[in-house]
UniProtKB/TrEMBL annotation:
Residues 145-282 form the Fatty acid hydroxylase domain. Its main location: membrane. The chain crosses the membrane at residues 40-59. The lineage of its organism: Eukaryota, Fungi, Dikarya, Ascomycota, Pezizomycotina. It holds the Pfam family FA_hydroxylase. Keywords: Membrane, Transmembrane, Transmembrane helix. InterPro entries: Fatty_acid_hydroxylase (IPR006694), Sterol_Desaturase_Related (IPR050307). The keyword Acetylation does not apply. The keyword RNA-binding does not apply. It is found in: Membrane. This is C-4 methyl sterol oxidase Erg25. It comes from the Eukaryota.
């Protein structure tokens, strides 16, 4: 751990499990808040930073991924919500949900686990802070906002490329389009290569930011990844509500945006925001097509 941060830690973990370490840490670090002491005690207790970060990252990913998917699975079984389902004639079957869950789990254990294990050495190489105290909420908020913008741009161009080049579509992206009416858990139903390419936007954005500014805490990165997982799972949920976020933030993409992409295979390539598709005229759906036709017609009239 970084030696310059303001805390005192025993050099070796105390016997008696995690909470004994927590008590020990609490004795000497009254200035740290409860979560900071929990964090510090965890790293001391595991006594191996690579392992500690690896376990935390993997468990966090699984808990957030399946935890966030669960409400959508439940909602699929409740007829009341059917009126909010975008493609409401296509409710995923139990069999579809299971085969998707198994595929995603298999991919997490075989493809993502080793990558997550490399995370701590890589984070250290680029100077990510792992100690305590934590950064302020304000700093975390603006850094995460930057990552959202960076990731969205990366996603737009790589995702669009996977649709534009038939070779990439056939060999990589086709798997993700197996479900034409997506559901929450289908967010990471994708080829391992795609997981790596698109994952680079999620992990690479904060790494790039840290390489330039030398000011990023791994906790901020975790919170960012949690938000990004929420975004991806919700975008695949298949549900559009009157209270969906894009009604309040018009540039937010949400499920309505990505569902059309799965239904029509063309357009709406961005992940979190609508601006790339809007500016570059790649919006999908009948309304966008109508606008495009009208623009063409107006142009033709002008030329005549
Ligand atoms: Zn696609
Ligand atoms: Zn998708």
């Amino acid at each position: 751990m970084n030696a310059t941060v303001a805390y005192q830690a025993p050099l070796l973990p105390t016997d008696g499990g995690y909470w004994a370490n927590f008590d020990e840490v609490s004795k000497y670090n009254v200035s740290l808040n409860y979560f900071e002491r929990m964090w510090l005690a965890y790293y001391i207790w595991i006594n191996n930073d690579i392992l500690a970060t690896g376990i935390m990252s993997f468990v966090m990913h699984e808990v957030v991924y399946f935890g966030r998917s669960l409400p959508w699975i439940i909602i699929d079984f409740i007829p009341y919500f059917n009126k909010y389902k975008i493609q409401n004639h296509k409710i995923p079957t139990v069999k579809e949900q299971w085969s998707c869950a198994l595929y995603v789990l298999l991919s997490h254990f075989t493809v993502e686990l080793p990558q997550i294990w490399l995370f701590h050495p890589m984070a250290q190489f680029f100077g990510l802070e792992t100690g305590v105290p934590f950064p302020s909420l304000l700093k975390m908020a603006y850094q995460i906002a930057i990552f959202f913008v960076l990731e969205d741009s990366w996603h737009y161009w790589t995702h669009r490329a996977m649709h534009v080049f038939p070779y990439l579509y056939k060999n990589i992206h086709k798997i993700h389009h197996y479900y034409s009416a997506p559901f929450g858990m289908a967010a990471e139903y994708a080829s391992p290569i795609e997981v790596m390419i698109l994952g680079l936007g999620t992990v690479g954005s904060p790494i790039l930011y840290c390489a330039i500014t030398k000011d990023l805490h791994i906790l901020t990165m975790y919170v960012w990844i949690i938000f990004r997982l929420f975004q991806a799972i919700d975008a695949h949920s298949g549900y559009e509500f009157p209270w969906s976020l894009h009604h309040f933030l018009p540039f937010w993409a949400g499920a309505e945006h990505h569902d059309v992409h799965h239904e029509r295979f063309i357009g709406n390539y961005a992940s979190s925001f609508r601006w790339w598709d809007y500016v570059l005229d790649t919006e999908a759906g009948p309304e966008a097509a109508k606008k495009r036709r009208e623009r063409k017609l107006a142009k033709a009239k002008k030329a005549a």
